[in-house]
User: What shape does this take?
Amino acid sequence: MLNVPPKVTDRAFARLAEINETAEAPQALRVAVEGGGCSGFQYEIKLDAPADDDLVLEGQGQKVVVDSVSLPFLADAVIDFTEELIGARFTIENPNATSSCGCGTSFSM
Assistant: This one.
């Protein structure tokens, strides 16, 4: 498997900038993969400080970070921000996932 880093859309960076505008201390958006969920793996997306072993993706003055353990699971993925009727959220389009659940936060490989 090639380790092509994930891509972050302009929309995702723009939303992160909006979130950080009102924050006391701007933070990075952490995208991680953990065991669990209804399909075997699940995404964890949260605001966090970058760690030493993180891959840092920068755009529009913002940072999205991925830890070294999660990185292979997110190779060539696209981190985006979508606004739908059910709500607005950060999403991950992952070509490595063989299946995913309806909620979009859990997948298998």
